[in-house]
UniProtKB/TrEMBL annotation, chain A:
Gene, per the UniProt record: recQ_2
Keyword ATP-binding (UniProt): yes
Taxonomic source organism: Jannaschia aquimarina
High-level lineage: Bacteria, Pseudomonadati, Pseudomonadota, Alphaproteobacteria, Rhodobacterales
Superkingdom of origin organism: Bacteria
Ranges where the Helicase ATP-binding domain occurs: 28-206
Name of the protein described by the UniProt record: RecQ_2 protein
TrEMBL record, chain B:
Name recorded for this polypeptide: Calcineurin-like phosphoesterase domain-containing protein
InterPro entries reported in the protein's UniProt record: Calcineurin-like_PHP (IPR004843), Metallo-depent_PP-like (IPR029052), PdeM-like (IPR026336), Pesterase_MJ0037-like (IPR024173)
Species of the source: Jannaschia aquimarina
Ranges for domain Calcineurin-like phosphoesterase: 29-122
SUPFAM superfamilies: Metallo-dependent phosphatases (SSF56300)
Example GO molecular function: hydrolase activity
């Protein structure tokens, strides 16, 4: 029995194109009445259409006034793309359905109109939805809503954007009680966890698996060129990559970071003697630039496109027949999804080639490849709902109008990740939003919400809604500045990090959107540039996406390292490199902890190979730096990956063992952690998300005397005067799940015991070299820093000729 | 050695303290600028963020510590002691008592700032500026000032330590001007590179970083 039938005109349109529905698309129609349904399908399986079929069928058969279906995806570009694709069957089959999208790019007038007169299908992002729901007319806008489709839910479920979305859905469910939820997901490790995430708790959520299609054709690209020892760009392989591009119709070339994509594109362009049409696409480029590339791609005008994760998620690129991944994929899942870009014909295998950027990455690629072939995925742990997001949600609910605390609490408990939230934990958040939640209650002005009658809350001053809306969102970005060509109406090019902009002097050149540009100056917080193709660029740094590989991959890498029998699968140069590590140092062994110490660049370095995951390594690093500080060894900083941690300081560490006692790791670290940059960063993010401090808006920053001050001051003040404050509790909660992994460190130290092999080297070891390329360094502020400050001050005075003058 | 920085200005020996206060031993005079007491209260009152309401307590705690260490006969608050007039009247009883106790027995001057007329209700006396020996004290540096001590700008300076940035509130000094950092706990800083400061200070100006450790560097510009 079919719950819904394809509308006849749409059935005819399919027939006229000789298309027939996939079984899972049929089943989506059959099960249109499920309160929640999760579809897991590979890219190219018509997943999105499957999600929309019940909507098309329902509106065609029964008509509908106002908003019928809400489609939410993590990317603006995806909303755009889906609108284009959905219009084709709707227009050509003559269905009476209005589709619009609403993202950060939608104009103010269009937004207003959409709230008053919503389309049948609205395509949006979690942030835009949260914003719509914060207006007092939200109940009218969403009253008749019947379905919500969450696309790429596997990506959203990993982070706070998804948590914010699920809180918004709990509100929607109250406004539109019959609401049906559909989740669309790529292959995931734990479908049940995603289903739990999607459904209204405690409703069940059936899972529908589409035929996964033939296994991908994936391998490491054979190159005549030898990868360098260290380095991240993969530019050595450009000749081979160019000939692959020539041999295929359309090639997608993925990079792990924007800076690498820019450098690679520039080098590729210089080597492109046949003038093949090649484009670049990443999230730091201006919208106009991205649209141009997207359109050229959709029209089939490009032979290759160099891209970052902005293309990871489901954007339809038509006839891609080869995906090249430059640099080792940091997560198996990401690799699988990137492969999914290739070959959208459902029944043909996807073709993908990996290009390791250096010799260590050859091993990483090998490990990732084996994992894909064996169907092993990363196994992300699901977590409890974060409370900073909850604080933001409560404030947004208040923006929409008065609410009852008991109702809101009950509603929040229907969100899977908040199902275990206690009333006391909720009340703390409510109190924080209402009054700041401080132990000191002297000022009656400290009131954002007023309790009008017992249990009924509303904004004290409705004008506060503006500030709350402006700070909406859970993505914490580094501050960036817009880049434009100089002159009136200069073409926008994208964004660069403010920190990088601050290092530029007029006349210097950098890469932006694949072209070399010259820095002219800063005008009203916009970086003005002019084209300068003849110059060598400086490297542009973009928002540094911190990517480390998963613990599963780290373990595989350790297995390969340890088993010379498996080295046969590696190219000769990598085998040679590993042999070199064995000769100059040691290979890490399971059950033992290898520690290398060596000088480099005027610092003493210590590298510990724990293969225990980045968080555990960060904690391990903090433990060691604490010991070093107490022993007067002047630690300066550390950087952690999933397989090792690298620590540097001003004095050599002759014996690391005393610093690695497993007794009371937690207690030992508590006070050291409190003052550490990791905690301060965590605090800042939590404080921005929960609305304690405002986001920085580049255009709005005050000039002249600064009105803002560092969030570190607030952190220190709370520590001193209000140590039980909610914001410090959230910081600790976030640190425990995000950055600090006491449990695993404890386990590692117990397992290893005294089986610690410390080896002193006179230079960087082959295995530690990749750590020097790792972003996300954590500074240690101690006596070592003080010494450097004094030395640098003396040097500067000397240089300025002020040192010798009388004071 | 104590963490402080002595220097000569207008022929007098002055001491920059890590707290951001200026100590003139010869005159037994302590000078602090831009305390901005009541900032969090003012922000909350105006519908802004609800910041931790502890900065009055913290600023006074640090001032008290400086007073106890040095026991000055005279104190100058160099303007913007309160974030605005209403912030001054909204102080809680405890804070008012503490301020009154600090003023007791001292020659205390409130120099008026651009945020606050002088809050003489607490005791002490008000002045738009004053001269003490060779030094003159005003809130905002004047174009023609000579041997002038001022505040207002909240100067800060940064040091680059091979891949690491240290940024701190600072004293700025050249032969004719001395600018104090903001003393208040909730006060941001203005980079010394800003035109407002680099245009004011002579080319050979120096910056003394407050905090730990105190060092003197050529003023970054």
């Amino acid at each position: 029995m079919r719950a819904m039938e394809l509308p006849p005109s749409l059935a005819e349109w399919f027939a006229s194109r000789h298309w027939s529905l996939h079984p899972h698309q049929h089943e989506m129609l059959d099960r249109a009445d499920e309160p929640a349904l999760l579809l897991i399908a590979p890219t190219g399986g018509g997943k999105t259409l499957a999600g929309f079929l019940p909507t098309l069928a329902d509106i065609s058969a029964n008509g509908h006034e106002g908003l019928h279906t809400l489609y939410v995806s993590p990317l603006k570009a995806l909303a755009n793309d889906i609108r284009r694709n959905l219009r084709i069957p709707i227009d050509e089959a003559g269905l009476p359905i209005r589709v619009e999208d609403r993202t950060g790019d939608t104009s103010q007038t269009a937004r207003k109109r959409q709230r008053a007169d919503p389309p049948h299908i609205l395509l949006t992002t979690p942030e835009s939805l949260a914003l719509m729901m914060s207006y007092p007319d939200a109940d009218r806008t969403f009253k008749g809503l019947k379905r919500v489709i969450v696309d790429e839910i596997h990506a959203l479920a990993e982070n706070k954007r998804g948590d914010q979305l699920m809180l918004a859905l709990s509100r929607l469910q109250t406004l539109a009680p019959g609401l049906r939820r559909v989740g669309l997901s790529a292959t995931v490790d734990d479908p049940a966890a995603i289903a739990h995430y999607l459904a209204r708790h405690p409703d069940p959520c059936p899972i529908l698996h589409a035929d996964p299609g033939p296994p991908p054709d994936i391998d490491i690209l054979r190159t005549d060129e030898i990868p360098p020892w260290a380095g991240a760009g993969g530019r050595y392989a450009i000749p081979t990559i160019l000939s692959e591009v020539k041999a295929h119709k359309t090639t997608l070339i993925f990079h792990n970071t924007r800076a690498q994509a820019e450098l690679f594109f520039h080098a590729l362009w210089l080597a492109n003697e046949d003038d093949l049409p090649i484009g670049i696409h990443h999230g730091a480029l201006a919208r106009e630039q991205r649209h141009r590339v997207e359109q050229a791609m959709a029209a089939g005008d490009l032979r290759a496109i160099v891209a970052t994760s902005s293309l990871d998620l489901g954007i339809d690129w038509g006839d891609v027949d080869l995906v090249i991944q430059v640099g080792a994929p940091k997560k198996v899942k990401q690799l699988v999804q990137r492969i999914g870009r290739a070959n959208h014909r459902y029944n043909a295998p996807s073709k993908a080639r990996l290009v390791p950027a250096n010799r260590f990455e050859v091993i990483e690629c090998r490990a990732a490849l084996e994992a894909v072939r064996e169907g092993q995925l990363d196994g992300d742990l699901r977590r409890d709902g974060p409370r900073d997001v909850l604080c933001q949600h409560i404030a947004l609910v208040a923006c929409a109008g008065p609410f009852r605390d008991a109702d809101l609490f009950a509603e929040i408990k229907t969100v899977g990740v908040y199902a275990d939230l206690s009333r006391a934990a909720f009340d703390e958040c409510l109190d924080f939003v209402a009054t700041g939640g401080y132990a000191l209650r002297a000022y009656d002005r400290y009131q954002r919400l007023k309790e009008r009658e017992p249990g009924l809350w509303s904004l004290r001053d409705p004008r506060a809604a503006r500030q709350i809306r402006m700070n909406l969102g859970t993505i914490i970005d580094t501050d960036t500045l817009k880049v434009r060509f100089r002159g009136r109406g200069g073409q926008p090019l994208g964004e660069i990090e403010e920190g990088f902009a601050a290092t530029l002097t007029p006349g210097e050149t950098f890469l932006m959107g694949g072209q070399v540009v010259r820095y002219e100056g800063l005008n009203q917080m916009t970086v003005e540039v002019s084209p300068r193709p003849d110059k060598e660029p400086r490297i542009a740094t973009y928002i540094g996406y911190k990517q480390t590989f998963s613990i599963q991959l780290a373990e595989r890498i350790q297995q390969i390292l340890n088993d010379p029998g498996r080295w046969d699968a590696l190219p000769w140069h990598t085998r040679e490199w590993l042999a070199l590590q064995r000769e100059n140092s040691l290979l890490p062994e399971p059950g033992r902890l290898l520690v290398e110490s060596f000088p480099r660049d005027g610092r003493h370095h210590l590298c510990l190979y724990g293969f225990a995951g980045r968080n555990a390594h960060q904690t391990l690093g903090l433990l060691v730096t604490k010991g070093m500080e107490e022993a007067g060894l002047d630690p300066m900083g550390l950087v952690a990956t999933d397989y090792a941690v690298l620590i540097w300081g001003l004095q050599p560490v002759r014996d690391v063992r005393p610093f690695l006692s497993h007794d009371g790791v937690h207690d030992a670290l508590e006070s050291w952690l409190a003052g550490n940059a990791v905690m301060k960063r965590t605090f800042r993010a939590a404080a921005v998300i929960s609305g304690l401090i405002d986001r920085n808006f580049p255009g709005k920053r005050t000039t002249g005397r600064q009105a803002t001050f560092s969030s570190d001051i607030l952190y220190d003040t709370l520590h001193r005067y209000d140590p039980d404050h909610l914001m410090l509790k959230i910081t600790e909660e976030e640190a425990m799940r995000g950055h600090i992994d006491f449990g695993r460190v404890d386990l590692l130290l117990k397992t290893v015991g005294d089986r610690i092999d410390q080896i002193a080297l006179d230079r960087v070891s082959p295995l530690s070299a990749p750590l020097f390329l790792e972003p996300g360094r954590v500074p240690i502020a101690g006596k070592g820093e003080n010494r450097l400050i004094e030395e640098e001050a003396a040097r500067l005075m000397e240089e300025a000729g002020l040192g010798a003058l009388p004071a | 050695m104590r963490n402080e920085h002595s220097f000569t200005f207008a022929g007098e020996t002055l001491v920059a303290l890590p707290s951001g206060a200026l100590w003139w031993p010869e005159a037994s005079l302590l000078c602090v600028s831009d305390m901005h007491l009541g900032k969090s209260e003012r922000m909350a009152r105006r519908g802004g963020a609800l910041l931790p309401p502890y900065e009055v307590r913290d600023t006074l705690r640090r001032l008290q510590a400086d007073l106890e260490t040095l026991d000055p006969a005279a104190v100058i608050s160099l303007g913007d002691a309160f974030d605005d007039m209403e912030a001054a009247t909204a102080l809680d009883a405890d804070a008012r008592d503490r301020i009154a106790a600090m003023i007791e027995g001292r020659d205390w001057t409130w120099v008026t700032g651009n945020h606050d007329p002088a809050p003489v209700a607490f005791g002490g006396h008000a002045a738009e500026g004053l001269t003490c020996g060779p030094l003159s004290f005003v809130h905002i540096a004047t174009r023609t000032g000579r041997h002038e001590v001022s505040g207002h700008y909240h100067p800060k300076a940064s040091l680059s330590l091979r891949g690491r940035h240290v940024s701190r509130p600072c004293f700025l000094r050249d032969a004719t001007r001395l600018i104090l950092p903001a003393y208040g706990t909730y006060t941001g800083g203005l980079r010394s590179r800003d035109r407002a400061l680099s245009g004011l200070m002579a080319p050979d100006a120096r910056a003394i970083l407050a905090g730990q450790p105190m060092v003197e560097i050529p003023m970054p510009r």
